[in-house]
Amino acid sequence: MKATLLEGVTVEEICAGFEYNELEGKGLFGWNGKLTIQPEYQRNYLYAEGGGEKEKSVINSVLQGYPIGLLYFNKVGDRYEVLDGQQRITSLGRYLKNLFSVKDSSGKPKFFDSLDEVDHKKILQTPLTIYICEGAELEIKNWFKTINIVGIPLNKQEISNSIYSGSFVTLAKEYFSNSQNTRLQIWSSYVKGNIKRQEILRTALEWVVKSSADDEVDEYMSLHRADENVDELKNYFEKVIAWADETFTENYSELCGLEWGRLYEEYHETDFDVKEIAAEVKKLYYDEFVTNKRGIFEYVLKFLSTGEEDTKLLQVRLFGNAEKRKAYDRQTKLAKSENISNCPMCALVKGQNSKKIWKLNEMDADHVTAWSKGGATDEKNCQVLCKYHNRFKGNN
Known about the structure:
- By secondary structure, the protein is an alpha+beta fold.
- It has 17 helices and ten strands.
- Strand 6 (102-103) and strand 7 (109-110) form a beta hairpin.
- The longest helix is centred in the C-terminal third of the chain and has 18 residues, at 321-338.
- The protein is elongated and about 100 Å long.
């Protein structure tokens, strides 16, 4: 790859004809239309987040005469793409469009048009240090990943977008990375992630390939790179969301971020009674002994479809050391008086352990009546069993 220094280009020239489209994924343009500021392999504009402190710092740096760093453009025919510097150039362009303000020395907010003549000219005439890069696509994209190690690091989907850029990525970003998408409100009930950082898109890809493995996601993107639509990806994602929304009719914050792709594959063919699901979820949600509320939803699906009570999903509260100690002392005192084992199950079985007095650390606290059968996690329902019989007893 060849890099050539381009000198003498100013902020005013680069921002000439600047276009900023609020609908992410559509691209940004400058330099009188010959510069694509946001090519499809670039991430979305992020400097406006968090109150816009980053974009304001770019403008303040220019006003104070500080360098804003090197910019790299990729030459494509007679046009250019921003390889590195998209966030800074967009900050400059947005300020020149009066889309945000910065505070002056007296603390007053100043839009570009309200700057005095000196500062106005200072911004427009600030020279930029630009390198023009030329090379094969793979070289350019490897360089893109290298120079984006600093600043806000690329996440794995942003890297994949850069590697497999093409019509598929463009269309996928238009749908899954657009913060104006009217579907976002319902998505946010089930999917976690920053839409501008491509995290919703990543989830959609993991669902459609039925795996979170990077190589499988990349293989799918490579296979579909030149597709003129993203119907399969979009339809599958929306199908999973619709199933989740129809299955769990009550709104719980813990629904967001569950493995909906996997749960859909495992349970979508089961004919559930959604009223029964709602009743079971509510009962468990308000059970004081259930410590993992997020596990309730899969627990209910599994129980109502197979009858299996997978209490590991719920992390039912265990007995504390004090409760265990009291049960141990009570059982041991009784066992010694009756010359039997202090493990009730050992005492029932003829053999060498039928009269054995186990040490406290050799025993586990257990529910007399299993929690799943209505037994409470309290002192009255606590017993201690030897470790073998506790494992043997299971959920009985």
